[in-house]
Protein backbone atom coordinates (compact mmCIF):
# COMPACT_ATOMS: atom_id res chain seq x y z
CA UNK A 1 0.00 0.00 0.00
CA UNK A 2 1.70 3.17 -1.21
CA UNK A 3 1.60 6.43 0.72
CA UNK A 4 0.87 8.35 -2.47
CA UNK A 5 -2.29 6.26 -2.91
CA UNK A 6 -3.36 6.94 0.68
CA UNK A 7 -2.64 10.66 0.23
CA UNK A 8 -4.73 10.67 -2.94
CA UNK A 9 -7.58 8.84 -1.21
CA UNK A 10 -7.56 11.28 1.72
CA UNK A 11 -7.54 14.25 -0.65
CA UNK A 12 -10.53 12.93 -2.60
CA UNK A 13 -12.47 12.63 0.65
CA UNK A 14 -11.45 16.04 2.00
CA UNK A 15 -11.91 17.89 -1.29
CA UNK A 16 -15.24 16.20 -2.05
CA UNK A 17 -14.44 14.59 -5.38
CA UNK A 18 -11.90 13.52 -8.00
CA UNK A 19 -11.80 16.81 -9.92
CA UNK A 20 -11.15 18.92 -6.83
CA UNK A 21 -8.58 16.39 -5.60
CA UNK A 22 -6.72 16.44 -8.91
CA UNK A 23 -6.48 20.22 -8.69
CA UNK A 24 -5.28 20.05 -5.11
CA UNK A 25 -2.65 17.43 -5.99
CA UNK A 26 -1.70 19.20 -9.23
CA UNK A 27 -2.30 16.12 -11.35
CA UNK A 28 -4.81 14.87 -13.93
CA UNK A 29 -8.09 13.18 -12.98
CA UNK A 30 -7.03 9.88 -14.54
CA UNK A 31 -4.11 9.62 -12.10
CA UNK A 32 -6.46 10.14 -9.17
CA UNK A 33 -9.03 7.59 -10.33
CA UNK A 34 -6.27 5.12 -11.20
CA UNK A 35 -4.73 5.33 -7.72
CA UNK A 36 -8.12 4.88 -6.06
CA UNK A 37 -8.93 1.90 -8.29
CA UNK A 38 -5.60 0.21 -7.55
CA UNK A 39 -6.08 0.83 -3.84
CA UNK A 40 -9.52 -0.82 -3.98
CA UNK A 41 -8.09 -3.78 -5.91
CA UNK A 42 -5.27 -4.19 -3.41
CA UNK A 43 -7.66 -4.12 -0.43
CA UNK A 44 -10.42 -6.07 -2.15
CA UNK A 45 -13.15 -3.60 -1.13
CA UNK A 46 -15.05 -0.63 -2.49
CA UNK A 47 -13.94 2.61 -0.85
CA UNK A 48 -16.64 4.76 -2.42
CA UNK A 49 -20.19 4.35 -3.63
CA UNK A 50 -20.51 5.89 -7.10
CA UNK A 51 -23.63 8.02 -7.47
CA UNK A 52 -23.67 9.52 -10.94
CA UNK A 53 -20.77 11.94 -10.98
CA UNK A 54 -20.53 12.03 -7.20
CA UNK A 55 -18.80 9.83 -4.64
CA UNK A 56 -19.99 8.76 -1.21
CA UNK A 57 -17.58 7.22 1.28
CA UNK A 58 -18.33 3.54 1.89
CA UNK A 59 -17.99 1.93 5.35
CA UNK A 60 -14.66 0.41 4.32
CA UNK A 61 -13.57 3.84 3.17
CA UNK A 62 -14.37 5.37 6.54
CA UNK A 63 -12.17 2.79 8.25
CA UNK A 64 -9.33 3.37 5.79
CA UNK A 65 -9.59 7.16 6.17
CA UNK A 66 -8.87 6.96 9.90
CA UNK A 67 -5.78 4.80 9.32
CA UNK A 68 -4.65 6.84 6.30
CA UNK A 69 -4.64 10.02 8.36
CA UNK A 70 -2.58 8.38 11.06
CA UNK A 71 -0.08 6.89 8.61
CA UNK A 72 0.34 10.14 6.68
CA UNK A 73 0.70 12.10 9.90
CA UNK A 74 3.38 9.69 11.08
CA UNK A 75 5.18 10.00 7.75
CA UNK A 76 5.17 13.79 7.98
CA UNK A 77 6.24 13.82 11.62
CA UNK A 78 9.02 11.31 10.95
CA UNK A 79 10.44 13.41 8.13
CA UNK A 80 10.15 16.59 10.20
CA UNK A 81 11.80 15.00 13.24
CA UNK A 82 14.73 13.69 11.19
CA UNK A 83 15.23 17.06 9.48
CA UNK A 84 15.00 18.95 12.75
CA UNK A 85 18.02 17.11 14.16
CA UNK A 86 20.28 19.21 12.01
CA UNK A 87 18.42 22.23 10.68
CA UNK A 88 15.02 22.79 12.31
CA UNK A 89 13.12 22.38 9.06
CA UNK A 90 9.82 20.80 8.16
CA UNK A 91 6.24 21.93 8.67
CA UNK A 92 4.25 22.84 11.77
CA UNK A 93 0.46 23.17 11.60
CA UNK A 94 -0.82 25.25 14.50
CA UNK A 95 -4.45 25.79 15.51
CA UNK A 96 -5.61 28.60 17.75
CA UNK A 97 -8.65 30.33 19.13
CA UNK A 98 -9.07 33.81 17.68
CA UNK A 99 -8.74 35.45 21.09
CA UNK A 100 -5.52 33.53 21.82
CA UNK A 101 -4.17 34.52 18.42
CA UNK A 102 -4.78 38.19 19.21
CA UNK A 103 -3.10 38.02 22.62
CA UNK A 104 -0.31 35.48 22.55
CA UNK A 105 0.38 33.99 19.13
CA UNK A 106 2.38 36.75 17.39
CA UNK A 107 5.20 36.62 19.94
CA UNK A 108 5.17 32.82 20.02
CA UNK A 109 5.36 32.53 16.24
CA UNK A 110 8.16 35.09 16.18
CA UNK A 111 10.11 32.92 18.63
CA UNK A 112 9.59 29.85 16.39
CA UNK A 113 10.74 31.80 13.34
CA UNK A 114 13.85 32.88 15.20
CA UNK A 115 14.78 29.50 16.65
CA UNK A 116 13.58 27.32 13.74
CA UNK A 117 14.06 29.57 10.67
CA UNK A 118 13.49 26.83 8.11
CA UNK A 119 10.29 25.54 9.71
CA UNK A 120 7.23 26.21 7.59
CA UNK A 121 4.34 27.49 9.72
CA UNK A 122 0.66 27.03 8.93
CA UNK A 123 -1.90 28.60 11.26
CA UNK A 124 -5.66 28.02 11.44
CA UNK A 125 -8.19 29.67 13.75
CA UNK A 126 -11.32 27.96 15.02
CA UNK A 127 -13.26 27.14 18.17
CA UNK A 128 -11.69 25.00 20.91
CA UNK A 129 -13.92 22.03 20.05
CA UNK A 130 -13.14 22.19 16.33
CA UNK A 131 -9.41 22.55 17.00
CA UNK A 132 -9.40 19.48 19.26
CA UNK A 133 -11.13 17.48 16.52
CA UNK A 134 -8.58 18.67 13.98
CA UNK A 135 -5.69 17.51 16.20
CA UNK A 136 -7.40 14.15 16.73
CA UNK A 137 -7.92 13.85 12.96
CA UNK A 138 -4.21 14.56 12.37
CA UNK A 139 -5.01 17.80 10.52
CA UNK A 140 -3.14 19.93 13.07
CA UNK A 141 0.07 19.19 14.98
CA UNK A 142 -0.91 21.28 18.00
CA UNK A 143 -3.58 23.76 19.01
CA UNK A 144 -4.10 26.44 21.64
CA UNK A 145 -7.48 25.94 23.31
CA UNK A 146 -9.42 26.85 26.43
CA UNK A 147 -9.29 24.08 29.01
CA UNK A 148 -9.28 22.03 30.92
CA UNK A 149 -9.09 19.31 28.25
CA UNK A 150 -9.48 15.66 29.21
CA UNK A 151 -9.21 13.16 26.37
CA UNK A 152 -7.30 9.86 26.39
CA UNK A 153 -5.62 10.64 23.06
CA UNK A 154 -4.62 14.22 23.88
CA UNK A 155 -2.18 15.94 26.21
CA UNK A 156 -3.04 19.39 27.56
CA UNK A 157 -0.24 21.68 28.75
CA UNK A 158 -1.62 24.67 30.65
CA UNK A 159 0.27 27.82 29.70
CA UNK A 160 -1.79 30.77 30.91
CA UNK A 161 -5.00 31.47 32.82
CA UNK A 162 -7.22 33.94 31.00
CA UNK A 163 -9.58 36.20 32.93
CA UNK A 164 -13.02 36.35 31.35
CA UNK A 165 -15.08 39.46 32.06
CA UNK A 166 -18.65 40.47 31.31
CA UNK A 167 -18.60 43.04 28.52
CA UNK A 168 -21.36 45.49 27.61
CA UNK A 169 -21.92 49.09 26.51
CA UNK A 170 -22.66 51.73 29.17
CA UNK A 171 -26.25 51.58 30.35
CA UNK A 172 -26.90 48.15 28.82
CA UNK A 173 -28.33 45.48 31.13
CA UNK A 174 -27.45 41.89 30.20
CA UNK A 175 -30.78 40.82 31.67
CA UNK A 176 -32.68 42.65 28.92
CA UNK A 177 -30.26 42.32 25.99
CA UNK A 178 -29.13 39.35 23.91
CA UNK A 179 -25.95 37.42 24.48
CA UNK A 180 -23.47 37.76 21.61
CA UNK A 181 -20.98 34.93 21.21
CA UNK A 182 -18.85 32.80 18.91
CA UNK A 183 -20.26 29.85 17.00
CA UNK A 184 -20.91 26.42 18.53
CA UNK A 185 -17.80 24.79 19.99
CA UNK A 186 -16.36 27.91 21.62
CA UNK A 187 -15.41 27.31 25.25
CA UNK A 188 -16.23 30.93 26.14
CA UNK A 189 -19.70 30.45 24.68
CA UNK A 190 -20.31 27.53 27.06
CA UNK A 191 -19.25 29.64 30.04
CA UNK A 192 -21.36 32.57 28.86
CA UNK A 193 -24.46 30.39 28.66
CA UNK A 194 -23.74 29.01 32.13
CA UNK A 195 -23.35 32.55 33.50
CA UNK A 196 -26.52 33.62 31.70
CA UNK A 197 -28.52 30.89 33.40
CA UNK A 198 -26.91 31.58 36.78
CA UNK A 199 -27.90 35.25 36.62
CA UNK A 200 -31.42 34.50 35.44
CA UNK A 201 -30.95 36.08 32.03
CA UNK A 202 -33.26 35.15 29.18
CA UNK A 203 -31.64 32.28 27.28
CA UNK A 204 -33.68 32.46 24.09
CA UNK A 205 -32.31 35.76 22.78
CA UNK A 206 -28.81 35.43 21.35
CA UNK A 207 -26.66 36.51 18.41
CA UNK A 208 -23.82 34.49 16.89
CA UNK A 209 -20.75 35.86 15.08
CA UNK A 210 -17.63 34.26 13.67
CA UNK A 211 -15.13 37.00 14.48
CA UNK A 212 -13.83 38.77 17.55
CA UNK A 213 -14.16 42.18 15.89
CA UNK A 214 -17.78 41.49 14.95
CA UNK A 215 -18.71 40.57 18.51
CA UNK A 216 -17.04 43.53 20.20
CA UNK A 217 -18.31 45.91 17.54
CA UNK A 218 -21.92 44.90 18.14
CA UNK A 219 -21.49 44.97 21.92
CA UNK A 220 -19.95 48.46 21.74
CA UNK A 221 -23.07 49.91 20.09
CA UNK A 222 -25.42 48.35 22.63
CA UNK A 223 -26.78 45.41 20.65
CA UNK A 224 -25.98 42.92 23.40
CA UNK A 225 -23.34 41.66 25.82
CA UNK A 226 -20.67 38.96 25.90
CA UNK A 227 -17.91 37.29 27.92
CA UNK A 228 -14.38 37.89 26.66
CA UNK A 229 -10.81 37.81 28.02
CA UNK A 230 -10.08 41.10 29.77
CA UNK A 231 -6.80 41.59 27.91
CA UNK A 232 -8.50 41.16 24.51
CA UNK A 233 -11.10 43.82 25.32
CA UNK A 234 -8.55 46.23 26.75
CA UNK A 235 -6.46 45.98 23.56
CA UNK A 236 -9.47 46.37 21.28
CA UNK A 237 -10.24 49.52 19.37
CA UNK A 238 -13.68 49.42 21.03
CA UNK A 239 -12.28 49.49 24.58
CA UNK A 240 -13.36 53.08 25.34
CA UNK A 241 -16.97 52.23 24.49
CA UNK A 242 -17.21 49.15 26.72
CA UNK A 243 -17.87 48.38 30.39
CA UNK A 244 -16.03 45.41 31.94
CA UNK A 245 -17.32 43.59 35.01
CA UNK A 246 -15.42 40.89 36.91
CA UNK A 247 -16.87 37.38 37.21
CA UNK A 248 -16.64 34.68 39.88
CA UNK A 249 -13.48 32.59 39.53
CA UNK A 250 -15.39 29.44 38.53
CA UNK A 251 -16.63 31.28 35.44
CA UNK A 252 -13.96 33.89 34.85
CA UNK A 253 -10.71 31.94 35.33
CA UNK A 254 -10.03 29.88 32.19
CA UNK A 255 -6.95 27.61 31.98
CA UNK A 256 -5.62 27.89 28.45
CA UNK A 257 -2.90 25.86 26.83
CA UNK A 258 -1.59 23.65 24.08
CA UNK A 259 -2.97 20.27 23.04
CA UNK A 260 -1.06 17.63 21.10
CA UNK A 261 -1.63 13.97 20.35
CA UNK A 262 -0.46 11.85 23.26
CA UNK A 263 1.44 9.44 20.98
CA UNK A 264 2.88 12.10 18.65
CA UNK A 265 6.68 12.25 18.31
CA UNK A 266 8.07 15.23 20.27
CA UNK A 267 8.90 18.29 18.19
CA UNK A 268 11.32 20.95 19.39
CA UNK A 269 8.99 23.63 18.05
CA UNK A 270 6.30 22.58 20.56
CA UNK A 271 8.62 23.51 23.42
CA UNK A 272 9.56 26.78 21.72
CA UNK A 273 5.91 27.75 21.31
CA UNK A 274 4.99 26.86 24.89
CA UNK A 275 7.95 28.68 26.42
CA UNK A 276 7.31 31.79 24.32
CA UNK A 277 3.64 31.93 25.35
CA UNK A 278 4.49 31.60 29.06
CA UNK A 279 7.27 34.17 28.80
CA UNK A 280 4.99 36.63 27.05
CA UNK A 281 2.20 36.15 29.59
CA UNK A 282 4.65 36.74 32.46
CA UNK A 283 5.65 40.17 31.14
UniProtKB/TrEMBL annotation:
<dbReference type="InterPro" id="IPR000847">
    <property type="entry name" value="LysR_HTH_N"/>
</dbReference>
<dbReference type="Pfam" id="PF00126">
    <property type="entry name" value="HTH_1"/>
</dbReference>
<dbReference type="Pfam" id="PF03466">
    <property type="entry name" value="LysR_substrate"/>
</dbReference>
<dbReference type="InterPro" id="IPR005119">
    <property type="entry name" value="LysR_subst-bd"/>
</dbReference>
<dbReference type="InterPro" id="IPR036390">
    <property type="entry name" value="WH_DNA-bd_sf"/>
</dbReference>
<keyword id="KW-0805">Transcription regulation</keyword>
<keyword id="KW-0238">DNA-binding</keyword>
<dbReference type="InterPro" id="IPR036388">
    <property type="entry name" value="WH-like_DNA-bd_sf"/>
</dbReference>
<protein>
    <submittedName>
        <fullName>LysR family transcriptional regulator</fullName>
    </submittedName>
</protein>
<keyword id="KW-0804">Transcription</keyword>
<dbReference type="GO" id="GO:0003700">
    <property type="term" value="F:DNA-binding transcription factor activity"/>
</dbReference>
<comment type="similarity">
    <text>Belongs to the LysR transcriptional regulatory family.</text>
</comment>
<feature type="domain" description="HTH lysR-type">
    <location>
        <begin position="1"/>
        <end position="58"/>
    </location>
</feature>
<dbReference type="GO" id="GO:0000976">
    <property type="term" value="F:transcription cis-regulatory region binding"/>
</dbReference>
